[in-house]
Every structure is written in structure tokens, then in C-alpha cells.
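Appendix B.2, paired examples.
Example (i):
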Amino acid sequence: MENRISIVVDAAAGPLEQYFAKALANYKNRGTVSAYLGKIGGFERNHHAVLSGIYKSHIRIPGVDDPWLKTTPIHRRVSDNFLIFAVHNTYPIHIQIIAIIKPDGHEKVKKLLPTIIDITEKRFQSLNERELNSLISYK
């Protein structure tokens, strides 16, 4: 079954969020890596973020940054911009974009993580399957 990528309700779902929702869906469902999507990891040092299913991907910003070379493996693609997303704990085919942190992602994420956890729990992890299926999503 294909992953369904949505954007958190109340977020400004502008072109950048939509671009990365599509890029993440293409990667998760087809293995196609966008030239602007980088290394994916979790927040292993924060127990609450792990329990909330929160992950980050290093990203480059289209129109601002040069894309990574196709020959650069995803695990070597690092930047100071982050795509923050969560995987639903009960229905893991549902993934939601929570935030894009740019620039200075490494510094800002430390301060924003408690808020990101709160948003994830209240606006994503609390949704039931019917509510998740009603979200606008990318496959």
C-alpha cells in the first residue's frame, strides 16, 4: 500500500511544502530521490520526538540552492535546512509534513522541537483512520 503524504492543518501549504510533500511521496513510494531531498534521520536524543514518530530530512531549497548531484548518495546529502515530518504511530502509511526549517535548521530545531512535538501529537497522531483518509495527500 502506498504512503500518503499530507501537510499539517493550519500550515501555510505553499509551493515549497507541496514540492516536498510530492518529493517525499516519490521517494517513499517509488524510490525516486529529488535533487533537493537529502539525508533522513530521527531525533534519537529526544525521547518524546521518537515516540511522536518525528523525523527530519536535510533539504536544499529549489530556486535558492543548487541541487545535489544525482551521483551524491542520499546519506551524504546534508544541509542546514530541514523538512520535518511525522509517521503516524497507528497507521504508518500516513506521513505528515509538519514544518520546513530554513535557514539555520540545526540551531532553530533545538528551540522548536517541543512545539513540533505538540503540533504532531495534537494535529496528526490524534487523528483516527477516517480523519487521516480525509486529508489532502500526495502519493
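Example (ii):
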Amino acid sequence: MAIKIQINGAALQVADLTEGKIVILEPSNSVWYVEKELVVGKIQFYDSNGRQRVTANKFPSVLLSEAVDGDGIAFTESTFRDFVYNNLGSDISSVSPTFIDRMITDGNTVYNNPCA
């Protein structure tokens, strides 16, 4: 099985190239991956915000060695993490404002408030 993983607009699109069908088409900001699977050479996505609990069932884990990016280049553990960090899981709409870093200033310099 060959799997193509790419961003299509605002969606994560995962296609099974052997079968010729899309197996995941989900908002990219609500999907993340399982790190413990990646370190053993597998890719497993899940719904990171809990709104749709079926994502993991739609996409069972596949071998990292069978996954390519949108340009057809094989993922490595490192390049897959880069893809994830740059494209997935950035839905801050579900984050409470109390968890967003607050900034403090002395008039000239802005500091992160460690007590926020």
C-alpha cells in the first residue's frame, strides 16, 4: 500500500494510492499524530480536539516507509514530524483564553509572564 499525505486547502488529505481513494479528508487544525507509533515506524492520526472521535477508525496506522508527501517524496521520521508541526493541530478556537500567554512590559521591553 502506498499512502500520500498532504494538505489540500485547509484539510489533511490522506490517499491510498494503491486503491485510488481518499481515506482521510479532515480539517488540518483538528488532527494530530501518535508519537509512540511514529518512533516504531508507523503513522497514526487522531482527532486532536475530541470533536470527531472517528478519525482514528478511518485511518488505521500505516508503515512510515509506505508514506509519501504531496510531491511523492518518501517521509522519514524527521520530515513527517516537520510536516505535522507545520501543518496540523493549530486549532486555537477550542483553547480557553486563560491558557494563552499573557505579556507584561516595563514600557520598553515585552516579557512573557510566567504566571499567566
